[in-house]
Amino acid sequence: MPVALRSVLLLSVLQSLAQGVPDAVAAKRQAAQLREQYDFVILGGGTAGLTVADRLSEAFSRKTVLVIEYGDIEYGRGFFDPPQVEHAPGFPGASTWTFNSLPSPHVANQTAKVVVGKVVGGSSCVNGQFFDRGSRHDFDAWDATTGIEQFDRSEHKWNWEGIFPYFKKYEVLTKGVFKSVTFTEPPDASVKAFGYTWDDSVYGGTTPIHSSYPPFQWADLPIVRDALKEMDIPIRQECAGGDKAGMCWVPTSQHPTTSRRSHSGLGHYAAVNATRDNYDLLVRHQAVRVLYPDSQVQGGRPPLWNGFGPAEVLQKAGISTVVDLPGVGANLQDHSASIIQWNYTKPLDLSPLPSDMYDPAFIADATAGFDETPARGPYTLAMRNSAIYIPLANISADFESIITTIKQQLAKTPTSPDMMAGYQHQLALLLELHSNPSAPSLEVPFGGGTSLSTVNLHPFSRGSVRLNATHPLEQPVLDYRGGSNPLDIAVSVAHLRYLRRVLSTPTMRARGAVEVAPGADVATTEQLAEYARRSVQLSLHHPCCTAAMLLREMGGVVGKDLKVHGVDGLRVVDMSVALLLPSSHTSSLAYAIGEKAADIIIQEWTQAG
To answer: In the record, which residues are listed under signal peptide (predicted)?
Structure first.
């Protein structure tokens, strides 16, 4: 059944983010159940998509909103829920897409495994629930378009001041009072036990997406925390207010009382749909084209053209081209990581430890505690909720050589006027970020245990995601091209050198910590580089930036109003519009993008009458 539409919001497959059990009865499963026309059609019921649907259906009670989602309504388990006994590498919650990339020859032909949510709520149903925000410097760089006249004139700002209100919008901080949305202050007992800190002023809002601190930590967490402190890492009260160079506690996207996962499917569909007769959800359907009359597509194209992207790629797949946009699917970025590991040669004499999860009696009590109200015990922990964020300028003797190499790459003349020009623009921004002593380059999340990851927050390599030309309705082809820019290996070496210093701290020496990986015999730059190439995890499930907010002539896909270049009524609203990866996990930004997009659309439609 064709659906007439006045505005379409296109959400990319790679960034559907959600979890939970919305009302399965309310969802529609047959196109015949739909109305004959809708004012807004949203393709993709993920983190950002459902946020936009909620806001538009609320703002325009007389206009109709349809969300079309490939997945179905399913329960979104937490990242670490019973009956798991450890943090498994899989994603055991709701249904997922699992994408395996092509081999990356620059990192020993390793492949990236990318897992995203195939469910109402998208990846917010299956992610690690780590709910941090990027640095203010990330967004100021994203919005740094000085000299790009068309962007300079835009009223929509995506710098820190332009995005910060939308981070605040989806959380409200309360204490002792249940509200529909919450970053909830931890109880006094948890504050006393773990030393939690936060800043009330960076929270606030009116939507039912919860974040909180868990009421449990493993007993060996203070060992790692104390060792990192001994590396003179500054301690921050809060990292969600734009300044995050240092060590801080990170909220988890879960309900503060039940410790169950909080996600877009619950907060932006189940919590509101029953009261909105203008909001429909169609599940288990895939959109294949958008119909346009001649007047709505620049260039006077025929009415049934149905592809937006690189013309050559579309033609190979047998798809007609509405608008030739080389940037669609390009500029793929993701966080990557290597690890250091160690063993303690002296007894810890602490309890509880992660190893206790193999004790049947401990597991039984942990399971019972998770079902209590309020929930208690290890299953409330999700993944972990501590991290350090360190600027490259503050950690490495290799800093100057890395900066010099960036400058040398910048000095090279672009080989093409579009994609390379866009990359050169990004490279200039990355030079500023890596030179800034307040802009993090390295993230190290931790929660006890005997390993730490070096997360590369601002990679230089770029990949792509393209249609499968033989089977265009099936999974796309991912080419991560990990390590294709050698700067990523150089940065990884700097990160590894810095982090392995933790094992030389007094706290670690007192415990007899002995490095297992990379190992004491891996010492030279060449050896560490080889370790980085062979050990790197190419994807931390944070794919982004494949419909970048930049000029069309520079490989961009959308403008600052999120409209697709050359098309009326079509926007992209998800993590793909980011120009650069943030120095954070991506779910909080996906919500903020959805909130800001909804405001832009509401303002435009209100002014138009």
So the answer is: 1-20
- Scan for tokens 């909220």, then name that residue: 251
Helix, coil or strand: residue 106: helix
Average pLDDT in the 156-162 region? 93
Q: For residue 519, what are its two tokens?
A: 């190992």
Reduced to 3 states (helix: H, G, I; strand: E, B; else coil), residue 43 is strand
121 found inside a domain? no
The DSSP secondary structure of 147-192, one letter per residue, reads T-HHHHT-S---SHHHHHHHHHHEE-EESSS--SSEEEPPPHHHHH
In a domain, 323, yes or no: yes
From the number of C-beta atoms within 10 Å of its C-beta (0-12, 13-18, 19+), residue 461 rates as buried
Length reported for the chain: 609
pTM for this prediction: 0.92
**Contact yes or no for 274/196 (Cβ under 8 A):** no
Beta pairing, strands 451-456 & 440-446: antiparallel
* DSSP-derived secondary structure letter, 267: I
Contact between 570 and 6 under an 8 Å Cβ cutoff? The reply is no
Residue numbers of the domain that contains 564: 4-76+263-327+549-608
What is the share, in percent, of the chain residues with pLDDT greater than 70?
88
Q: Which of 224-228, 566-570, 583-587 comes out lowest in average pLDDT?
A: 566-570
Whether residue 101 contacts residue 111, with contact meaning beta carbons closer than 8 Å, is answered with: yes
CATH code, domain carrying 600: 3.50.50.60
Locus of tokens 């703002």: 59
* 29 has a pLDDT exceeding 60: yes
Count CB-CB contacts under 10 A for residue 234.
Answer: 12
pLDDT of residue 412: 83
- Residue type (1 letter), 442: L
- The number of domains in the chain is 1
Which amino acid, residue 162? G
Q: In this structure, how many other beta carbons lie within 10 angstroms of the beta carbon of residue 422?
A: 26
Does residue 296 sit within a domain? yes
